[in-house]
Amino acid sequence: MIEPVLEVRDLKTHFPTERGIVKAVDGVSFALFPGETLGVVGESGCGKSMTALSIMGLVPRPGKIVGGEIRLMGENLVGKPERELRRLRGNRMAMIFQDPLSTLNPVMRVGDQVVESIRIHYRDLVSGGNGTTRLPLSWRRSRREAWERAVALLEKVGIPAPAERMMAYPHELSGGMRQRVMIAIALSCNPAVLLADEPTTALDVTIQAQILDLMQRVQEEYGTSILLITHDFGVVSEFCHRVMVMYAGRAVEAAPLDELLTNPRHPYTQGLLDSIPRLGDRTHVVRPIEGTVPELHALPPGCPYCTRCPLADDYCRQVEPARFDVGPGHWVACHKAVPAGQPAGQPEEA
Amino acid sequence: MTSSTPAVNPEVLRRRWTGERVWEAISDFWRRFRKNRAAVAGAVVVLAVVWAGVLAPWLAPHDPTEANFFNRFRPPAWMEGGTWEHPLGTDQLGRDILSRIIWGARASLAVGGVVIGFATVVGVAMGLVSGYYGGRLDAAIQRLVDILLSFPYLVLAIGLMGVMGPGFVNMVLALVYKEWVTPCRVVRGEVLAAKNQEYVEAARAVGASDAHIMWREILPNVLSAVVVVATLRVAWVILMEASLSFLGLGVQPPTPAWGSMVASGREYIFQAWWMATFPGLAILVTVLGINLLGEGLRDALDPRLRE
Amino acid sequence: MNAAQILNRALQLIPVVLGVTLIVFALMHLTPGDPVEVMFAGESGVSEEDLERYRQELGLDLPLPIQYWNFLAGIVRGDLGMSLVQRQPVRDLLLSRMPATIELTAAAILISLIIAVPAGVLAAVHRHSAVDQVGTVGALLGVSMPDFWLGLVLIMLFGVRWGILPISGRIPWGMEPETVTGLYLVDSVLTGNWAAFRASLRHLALPALTLGTSMAALTMRVTRSGMLEVIHQDYITFARAKGLSGTEVVLRHGLRNALSPTVTVVALNIGVLLGGNMIVESVFAWPGLGRLVVESIYNRDYPVVQAAVLVYAMTYVTMNFLADVLYTVLNPRVRF
């Protein structure tokens, strides 16, 4: 049996606010296997970005991981001291963000930013990787070497004339180029897990395809596992092996890609799929999901989706649904989706 | 409004400051202001200083100019040789320091109030005209503003006072010279932002005059910014007044002023530390109070103005 | 920013500079009567012929536009007129006082930055903590404190009560180092005169601290809010995701972005500093430009007052210009 590189169990990340505790991530569990891409889908504010930040140990204040486990290559990250987390960041796990313009430091040359991350990694190699011996970043020996590696990296991610681009500032590059730079930085230490938070959302459609293609090539070459966070089912269907759907801080359904697209079981997943316009299919009626996501500090006691769900009854409003396996690798958290085989709702295309 | 004014559309009317709206705004403001403890403390200090200044003849235990040569350099009451007759001690002429501080509030408040009053009126008018008409008039006024801003504040005031000579009127003039620039810039910025808002366009569309639009439509909307800036600037003007008086260019003896009291205390720092210390503390507390009040007003009236 | 842009920006300063000279020129003509009458007001034994002679000497009998032209021409030639009291060219007088003021101002800026930048950064990083609250209260006190009073309190504590620091002047009589730059600290190092270095450093301590404190308050506030804004940027999160430690993130990625508003404020505060230095120089009998102005006002030496105000204003204009240039250097995004 293959061990997952990353395994998250019952993760809970909460934010105390004046109006109550916001449960941004509330009991999310999943596993990510070597060389696999897991898509995490949901509307904005459903906790998908916060899940990624929790894994990185970068939950912004006043948020805190209040429960669960995050096992990276068997090692639990929850409760680890900052110093040890720092050693893993950018090293075994790396993260790329939605907007490369605001994610790259505007006053530093692109090259310096790539070199910096290479040298952080190098420092950790020299200090034996235990994070206790601290060498200053200005440690000279590797300067030239790191620069050359950075040029090679930029070339690898498909940046033309990389040696010249090294001297550019982020605002002087196009959106696609910037995203490539960010991927180069994330790849600089050959991480086992890449967390990609909406990596293509800020880009034009044609550039999106190029970036996805780049990530796919990287994955094939290095065997990197990717957690791809997105709200775009188009991206998911292009690229992911498995998909997990999140709603209001919870995971509501997960399945292999084809299974999820053809046989969605949770009313929310069905709603999401119905709300996508389809190219070349004039008979398909786009149906948006009614209502909005409930405020996270005032969730109903039962199923979080009950306020918008067309099938919800009193039982749904009172009792939180547990996970039910409905197929190979396919589970769903919905009272109406069980027992397996009994269709929940009437999907148009089923 | 005269009967010849064309009918104004209801949206414009709705935006006008009716009595009810003013009351709503005030109670809303008070609800927010009251939560800010520092601002309330500042308001209390400012009220106390104003109280002291207005009621000085009744509050002060002694005549602030009354010299008593047998009572010179008396230390504060809690020190050896001090008496409760003169709680904060006496100066080189035997005058009561507490009484002089109480009377001194008058000079600071008068200069602060008059300078800011004048500067605000001039600055608001200039800012309205500059922002509303734009074009050459705006360019001319803004050039003047640029030039005045090229002078360090105190340098221009000291230069002017040096040439014109000391005295209350000259000091007000010397400070207003540059002070109007601040409200002018604030109002101009707000007017530029407000000019293209719908309620102004609506008023223009129904044929309201320029003066009417500036006075009735734009001014009420920039008022809170003006109040906040004016309050904060009073603190600055009081510091400038004190500095000029300290240099002997401001309020002239024997009229008590905090700055000149510190200056005379400076001559006796070896024997009477209290002479310079207490008037300086009075300046510090007053200016601090006004700053706290001003920042509280800013937060409660217009959170946009936060730095 | 390239050379052409800098030049363009410099050209925009010309109308401002002309306006400044016009106001300084007008300073002399603000008073009722003419400057000569004001100068000698209340002095006995000055005949009408003497006054007339002075008027001619100063060119005050000419029409105003011509007087202004002569004034401008004088500035261009470096001729700022004669001091009425010292009987020497105003320019020489100003130049002789300049090094003391530069030394004091530079020391004050240095002190303010040493206090304000770490305090502002710490306050922002540990927002709402005790550090932040102490810093905020301290900054507010600093802004509200009259600097002449702070100077006197420091004198009373360090000079009178504990007697550990000198309270007036630049250096004891006769200890001056050989003149190279006129800056005693620099000169004493260059000539290896360590006694003079120590003495001038001790004299500099209190005035520079007084002036630096009032400026530190403003600088700290700006650094704090600049840093607060930066801390929430994505590139800070990304830098941490790379594996940098918190301190490295602040120093390498935060500080440079946060400091560009600070640079502007430091330059704008040069104005506050120049005004403040007139006061502080008077309090500490520091023989610089500011004290010269105040002395000249007492002596009714108007040409000196006029020229010094001009020098202050020009310094201020220049500083703001340099700040603009520096701002664009720190901020590659800004181009104009």
Overview of this protein structure:
The complex is a heterotrimer of chains A (350), B (307) and C (336). By secondary structure, chain A is an alpha/beta fold. Chain A contains twelve helices and twelve strands. Chain A has helices at residues 48-56, 82-88, 100-103, 110-126, 143-156, 162-165, 175-187, 205-222, 233-239, 257-262, 267-274, 314-318, and strands at residues 6-17, 20-32, 37-41, 64-72, 75-76, 93-96, 193-197, 225-230, 242-247, 250-256, 324-327, 330-332. The longest helix of chain A is centred in the middle third of the chain and has 18 residues, at 205-222. Chain B is mainly α and 307 residues long. Chain B has a single domain (28-305), classed as MetI-like (MetI-like fold). Chain B is built from 13 helices and no strands. Chain B has helices at residues 10-15, 19-35, 37-54, 56-59, 97-133, 135-149, 153-164, 168-179, 181-195, 198-205, 210-246, 258-266, 273-301. Chain C has 336 residues and is mainly alpha-helical. Chain C has helices at 3-11, 13-27, 35-40, 48-58, 64-77, 90-125, 130-144, 147-161, 184-190, 194-231, 234-241, 246-283, 289-298, 302-330. In chain C, helix 9 crosses helix 10 and helix 12 runs antiparallel to helix 14 (302-330). Chain C is globular. Chains in contact: A-C, B-C.
Q: What Rg of chain C do the Cα atoms give?
A: 24 Å
CATH topology of the domain at 97-330 in chain C: MetI-like fold
Number of H/I helices of chain A: 12
Mean pLDDT of chain C: 84
Global Rg of chain A: 21 Å
CATH superfamily membership of the domain at 97-330 in chain C: MetI-like
Give the overall shape of chain C, derived from the CA principal axes.
globular
The total count of strands of chain C amounts to 0
* DSSP summary, beta strand count of chain A: 12
Our estimate of the beta-strand percent of chain C is: under 5%
Q: What would you call the shape of chain A?
A: globular
- Overall mean pLDDT of chain A stands at 82
Count of runs of 4 or more consecutive helical residues of chain C? 14
Largest sheet of chain C: none
Largest inter-chain contact set: B-C, 47 and 56 residues
Strand coverage percent of chain A = 15-25%
Instruction: Give start-end ranges of low-pLDDT stretches of chain C.
Output: none
